[in-house]
Automatic annotation (TrEMBL):
PANTHER family: BLR1914 PROTEIN, PHP DOMAIN PROTEIN
A UniProt-annotated Pfam family: DDE_Tnp_1
MF terms in GO: DNA binding; transposase activity
Region (Disordered): 61-84
InterPro entries per record: Transposase_11
Protein name (record): IS4 family transposase
Record-annotated Transposase IS4-like domain positions: 4-124
Length: 138
C-alpha cells in the first residue's frame, strides 16, 4: 500500500501462491489512518473487497471486470462509477514496484526466509523514502 505521492505505507508478505485481493482487509487493518479513496485495478473487483471498503467508509475506484461476449453482469444494480482521472493515479503503485524491481535482490529474491526477505523490502522502502532528502536530482 502506498500514499498518493508514491511513498510506501504498509507491506504484507504472503506466500507466492496467495492472491493480492484477499489480503486487502488485513492490509487495511494494519494502517492507522484509513484512506478516503482506494484506487485499484480490476483484480480487486469482488463483492468481498467492495463490502469491506463500504463498511469502513472508503470510496472504491475499482472498475468492473470485463465479461466474455454474451454473459450477463455478475451483480445486480448499476455498475460502479469510476473516475478516469482518479483511476489514472493507479500508476503510482506500479511505479513503486518498478523502483523495487530495479533492485536485483528484490526481483530475484535471493533471501529464502520470509523474515530476511521482509527486512530487505523494508530497507528498500526506507531507501525510496529517503532518496529525495539525500539526492542532488529530484
Amino acid at each position: 500500500m502506498c500514499c498518493g505521492r508514491g511513498f510506501p505505507l504498509q507491506v504484507l508478505l504472503t506466500g507466492g501462491q496467495a492472491g493480492e485481493a484477499p489480503q486487502l482487509p488485513r492490509l487495511l487493518e494494519l494502517e492507522e489512518k484509513k484512506p478516503k479513496v482506494l484506487v485499484a485495478d480490476k483484480g480487486y473487483d469482488s463483492q468481498v473487497v467492495r463490502k469491506v471498503l463500504r463498511e469502513q467508509s472508503i470510496r472504491a475506484q475499482i472498475p468492473e471486470r470485463g465479461l466474455p461476449e454474451g454473459n450477463k453482469r455478475r451483480r445486480k444494480g448499476r455498475p460502479p462509477k469510476v473516475s478516469r482521472q482518479m483511476y489514472r493515479q493507479r500508476n503510482i503503485i506500479e511505479r513503486l514496484f518498478g523502483r523495487l524491481k530495479e533492485m536485483r535482490r528484490f526481483a530475484c529474491r535471493f533471501e529464502k526466509l520470509a523474515d530476511s526477505y521482509l527486512a530487505f523490502v523494508q530497507l528498500a522502502f526506507m531507501k525510496i523514502c529517503l532518496k529525495p532528502y539525500f539526492s542532488d536530482t529530484p
